[in-house]
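Action item from last week, closing it out:
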Amino acid sequence: MPSSAMTKTLSEPIKLIYAGGTFGSYGRPLTPLSAEIFLPTLQQLLAEQDDVKNLPQVSWLDNALIKDSSQLTPNDFAHFYQLLLAAYAEGDRRFVLITGTDTLSYLGAFLAEAFAGSDICVVVTGSMRPLLDSEVFQSYTVDADSDAWDNLTNSLKLAAAGEAGVKISFGGESWPAQTVQKIHSHDLMAFTGHSRAAYPANSYIKNLPDTRRQHWLDDQQELVGNIQSRAEQARIHALYCLPNDTEVMSNQLQALLSQPPCGIILLGFGAGNVPYSPALAEALELAYKNGHMVVCASQSPFGGVSDSYAAGSWQYDYHVISGGRLTIPAIYARLLWLLLRYDSPTRRRQRWLNNVNQAGTTIKQR
């Protein structure tokens, strides 16, 4: 039988968080509505819809951070982590977060990393078209051609099921957040993902005993102050391979060596091929010695990286970490969480390798 705490949780409303984005935009030109205007409007629309009887009860989680998602920073990611953590500590377990689509997959993947090992249920969604019809000035009316209403109602129903983990719901589908990437800048089917997800998705626990949940919370809350302060300095850089002389990339990497330990994503060709040069190899060795984490990813949207080609395998001899099949947003999210969560380059690297080994999808690290 479920515990009394679990029964109480499942009977409570889903907490809805509004963070801005296209979903809540209105007017000409489109501008995000403030929470003071948008949330009462949304609440009224939810009450008026024909299918309201099929929707779970909703309440609002106050959020002061409402901005275009293209402007989000590590500080903002830490804000949403802390917002959800505080509500989770108070006994809430099911959430729907509405945000903009530009960085939706990045934020979802970050939250999946941050809440790994818990039994929280977070569904992240947004829309490609605003919920409200800007052609109607007399009142706020749902735009029948928008994808926003369907995305919201699907997300609420998914959250109502209460399955532990962080998921992204969009265009009638849902996926573990770490697998999702935006593949179209205008189409309503803007995102894709898959269900063959390992860590952090496989770390969530369906029914976490109260004692274990409290231990998890105690561990997280002990580090909240450190996470916020580290977010001020956290930096993730991306170096994109192009058909240039190898001097270009080695110079870009050299320019980062004097900075505090950070995350660096090498966006290689194909299966992670990166053009070799002695200067680049030396820069990678120095990056490792200076505490930077360099992760190789593929410019290709699907398939990830491997060490099948000599053109790519050489870098792993210089402490580059394979991104495996992780998407670029998922690699960014994992790097950022490790920078915020752990205080030394050695612990960050150990934790990454431990996580990837759990996934069973990485190449052997030399």
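Closing note: DSSP finds twelve helices and 14 strands in the chain.
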